[in-house]
Amino acid sequence: MTSSPINVAIIGAGLSGLSLALALHQQNIPCTLYERNNAPLNIGGAVMLSPNALKVLDALSVYSRIRTKGYNFETLEYKNGDGKLLEVYEFGSEEKYGYKALRIYRKVLIEELVEMLREKGVQIVFGKKFVKVLEESEESVSWEFADGTVGKASLLVGADGIHSTVRKYLYPDLKPTFAGGMGVTAAVPTEQLKLPPGYHIPVTILTPHGSFVIAPQQVDGSEVLIGKQKRVPKDHDRAGWDAISADKEALVKFLQQDTEHFPEFVRNAVSKIGHGKINVWPYYIVPKIERWTSDKRRIVILGDSAHAIPPSAGQGINQAFEDIYIFALLLGQVNKVDTQDALKFWQEYREQRIAKVMDLNNQIELRRMTKEEREKMPAGSMHEIELSWLYKPNFKEDVDKWVATKSKVAA
Ligand SMILES: Cc1cc2nc3c(=O)[nH]c(=O)nc-3n(C[C@H](O)[C@H](O)[C@H](O)COP(=O)(O)OP(=O)(O)OC[C@H]3O[C@@H](n4cnc5c(N)ncnc54)[C@H](O)[C@@H]3O)c2cc1C
């Protein structure tokens, strides 16, 4: 264990990195963020935050600043093409979990986090690309940036996303796996849909011809995200995906395809789509990896770098917020517990929850299958979805309890 003061270098100023910096600041642990771009990454329009992540953002005093900057809602309905309600899926509930879900533009969230870090004097160095670790000792780690400069800290955290360079130190050959599909989404004005009065959104409409998602965004719900998934038989390189993203007409056509089998408001939704409002999300995952920390525990990966997961339950970012919060809580206790033990507990705790999210993803995918596809699945594959374990976590209590058992052992 080290009881010498910790200072942390965070690679990547995405949502994981920025929120980690806030959480460390809360624990009085100094840190610096390094981001390769000249501004934070802004991909993919709006994101959905569920109560587990909002509890973290509340503890970091972020929630009160963003709650009114996005669309608050509780449930997503699954309906068939005839409008019959098939299932109601909870994304949040003030009564049951303490928070409604919040759909918020990634840019808005990032800007708020950057502003909070600025107010607290936490440094973000933009245009600084991490290249490789130079040396890891029992006390510190040093690394190189693309401009040839060298950094040194007692801990280096790779919050550098699914294609992480920091991860290469732990797994030089690991590449994210292509999951065989992509999401194509667009933002359109809600009024364009001419929804029947009282029709509940967000909704996923399931038909034998595929599913179609409609989810409100903007504070007043005046805009909706519309989207479909597409199976993609083979992976593409960066240039290939860029070409797919750039061909807006083909993407509009894909969104319009088969809509004759959907209600009229879906045809209205796809009738006019601005090219600048279309997003493509290729689905990659990071296969389950054994170690999120190096042997000497001076190098750590988290967020998408450690566990990019499929999008079905919308938990990618939410799980990253869980990572950073528990990580910072534990680092805040290293005067009481061994750092190695703390990081081991952190990874085990997080892995258990991610395994349950993967099961939840599977359950959601089963519900999106056609009847024929579902019938081919082994009997008993589908079970009822229960969400309180996900949405009502006790992160702080769990960490305090673990620290108390360790402190007793030490005493
Ligand atoms: C189009 C799209 C839409 C999505 N929508 C949703 C959604 O609605 N809900 C959801 O839960 N998830 C969504 N996801 C997944 C979600 O974006 C990720 O789970 C989340 O962004 C992970 O955050 P992160 O900070 O770990 O990584 P990232 O957001 O990828 O951030 C990593 C940061 O590290 C920086 N970086 C990378 N390499 C280096 C380096 N060598 N040196 C310095 N900096 C570096 C990058 O520039 C970036 O700023 C979406 C993903 C995509 C692509």
From TrEMBL:
<dbReference type="InterPro" id="IPR002938">
    <property type="entry name" value="FAD-bd"/>
</dbReference>
<dbReference type="GO" id="GO:0016491">
    <property type="term" value="F:oxidoreductase activity"/>
</dbReference>
<keyword id="KW-0285">Flavoprotein</keyword>
<protein>
    <submittedName>
        <fullName>FAD/NAD(P)-binding domain-containing protein</fullName>
    </submittedName>
</protein>
<feature type="domain" description="FAD-binding">
    <location>
        <begin position="7"/>
        <end position="359"/>
    </location>
</feature>
<keyword id="KW-0274">FAD</keyword>
<keyword id="KW-0732">Signal</keyword>
<feature type="signal peptide">
    <location>
        <begin position="1"/>
        <end position="23"/>
    </location>
</feature>
<dbReference type="InterPro" id="IPR051104">
    <property type="entry name" value="FAD_monoxygenase"/>
</dbReference>
<dbReference type="GO" id="GO:0044550">
    <property type="term" value="P:secondary metabolite biosynthetic process"/>
</dbReference>
<dbReference type="Pfam" id="PF01494">
    <property type="entry name" value="FAD_binding_3"/>
</dbReference>
<keyword id="KW-0560">Oxidoreductase</keyword>
<dbReference type="GO" id="GO:0071949">
    <property type="term" value="F:FAD binding"/>
</dbReference>
<dbReference type="InterPro" id="IPR036188">
    <property type="entry name" value="FAD/NAD-bd_sf"/>
</dbReference>
